[in-house]
Task: structure prediction
Amino acid sequence: MCGIVGAVSERQITGILVEGLSRLEYRGYVSAGMAVHDGQHIHRLRRIGKVKALSDAQSETPLNGTLGIAHTRWATHGVPAENNAHPHMSGDRVAVVHNGIIENYERLKDELIHAGYLFTSETDTEVVAHLLAQQLQLGKSVRDALGDIIKRLEGAFALGVIDKHNPTQLYTARKGSPLVIGVGIGENFIASDQLALLPVTDRFMFLEDGDIA
Result:
């Protein structure tokens, strides 16, 4: 069962992301990864195996930033492999983490390949990243793009999204998969389980189906 953690803050958040993922290890998973915005670019780090492998990689090649998303993945679409680990990106523009299953992803993937998008994973999640990028290229805001694409997604999902051009904004949406917002002082968080956020806040908002934040 997959796990999501995300943070937007005035302080460095990589430690918060790793700690949050470690608190979700009880769910079972095969890989872990994070994407962090450093103020100019989104940098991604993914590893097969335990959260410790991701933490060790982060120590060796630090990601620094005040906005980021992280994920532990249980293999559903695609074998356990680094290219199938979350977050998934479309170019260098957007990064996405996702819990749940997109039931119509094969049809959406065919449409996106026909439109010229290159897929580097076997997952259903990568279609979300490319759909977002496609809408953003039309000049839509991330909020509007997210609202448009979730109408096209069939199945269950909880999403965390960051965008290269919005270094202080963390976006999320849910339908059928749990997601909670943690409210802090000068910072906010998302997670698939509030347990992941207890070290940083005890104030929570629970999203309803169809909500975007």
